[in-house]
Amino acid sequence: MKKIAVVILNWNGAKLLEQFLPSVVAYSEEAKIYVADNASTDNSLKIIQSKFPQITIIKNDSNYGFAKGYNMALQQVEEDYYALVNSDIEVTPNWLSPILSVFDNEPNIGIIQPKILDFKNKAYFEYAGAAGGYIDQFGYPFCRGRIFDTIEKDQGQYNDDVDIFWASGACLFIRKDIYRKLNGFDDDFFAHQEEIDLCWRAFNLGYTARYTSKSVVYHVGGATLNEGHPRKTFLNFRNSLLMLTKNLPERKLFFLLFIRLCLDGLAGIQFILKGKFKHCWAIIKAHFAFYSLINKTLKKRTGNKADNYYHCKSIVYQYFVKNGKVFES
């Protein structure tokens, strides 16, 4: 049996599969390739069966979203290492060898992210993950190569191997035993920020996430849910609050949650000033959805919560007040 499984989650992504599966098949000799299908109603499965017969199909019986969709599918995948790959990812030659080398030689590394560049503008990093992710004290995520909407050109400034806090769900490698020990993604998230929550829970158990520039992929981004969609605003704001509730240290929990709720209110006002009323309403709905889940989420708090989870106190302050547009180590 091969050590690594490349698992691509699909829902009505026939065109993406036709476009991007050829690179995965061509450059993944070390892996067994799976497509986990969330009950697609298009011709996704026919395309895989006719054009890519070497790929194993896992059929979920409903559209469970990203989190539960992977959780359901990975129950059937027994390779030692999982590569969770979006359907809009183009991989490159030798993308798996550096990952296998790290996993085989550094047992303390539980999660790995490759360099993620923009498929549409390959000289630049891609929004979702770039060169590895971090959060600030209030749970705002950012990356080396991308802070809020400022995206850097790849000029070799992140050609290194470094420990990070979170790896992008667009292309995330994780040891099977760790994924199962963590019970996978949190089903309640459906989609967005579930990978940060997963990495935070792994961090609290003492596992390390690593970025390596030796592996490179290209990501379209927004192919399944556009960046400007209110649904995405809802999921990001709700899930960020759920993630903080689960993972913050006890002594900081309610204070930092209160501050974050206030900051979300300011974000809502900013949306109103920009005329983006649906996004402001999405934040309000996200808060009410969070309140409905808060008791259930508090029960998910387990074990010790590390204090040193954040890279800086406030990325919002650094970016908007100090004009810090690029990553500071």
Q: How would you describe this structure to a colleague?
A:
The protein is of the alpha/beta class. The chain contains 10 helices and 14 strands. The chain has helices at residues 14-26, 44-51, 65-74, 97-105, 176-181, 194-204, 230-247, 253-273, 277-298, 315-321; strands spanning 4-10, 31-38, 56-60, 81-85, 89-91, 109-118, 121-125, 133-135, 141-143, 146-147, 150-151, 161-164, 171-175, 208-219. Strands 1, 2, 3, 4, 5, 6, 7, 12, 13 and 14 form a 10-stranded mixed β-sheet that branches. Strands 8-9 form a two-stranded antiparallel sheet. A two-stranded antiparallel sheet has the order 10-11. Helix 1 (14-26) links the parallel strand 1 (4-10) and strand 2 (31-38). The longest helix is centred in the last third of the chain and has 22 residues, at 277-298. It is globular and about 50 Å long.
Q: Key features?
A:
single chain, 329 residues, alpha/beta, two-stranded antiparallel sheet
Blueprint of the fold:
Layout lengths: L3 E7 L3 H13 L4 E8 L5 H8 L4 E5 L4 H10 L6 E5 L3 E3 L5 H9 L3 E10 L2 E5 L7 E3 L5 E3 L2 E2 L2 E2 L9 E4 L6 E5 H6 L12 H11 L3 E12 L10 H18 L5 H21 L3 H22 L16 H7 L8
Parallel strand pairs: 1-2, 1-4, 2-3, 6-14
Antiparallel strand pairs: 4-13, 5-14, 6-7, 6-13, 8-9, 10-11, 12-14
Helix pairs in contact: 1-2, 6-7, 7-8, 7-9, 8-9
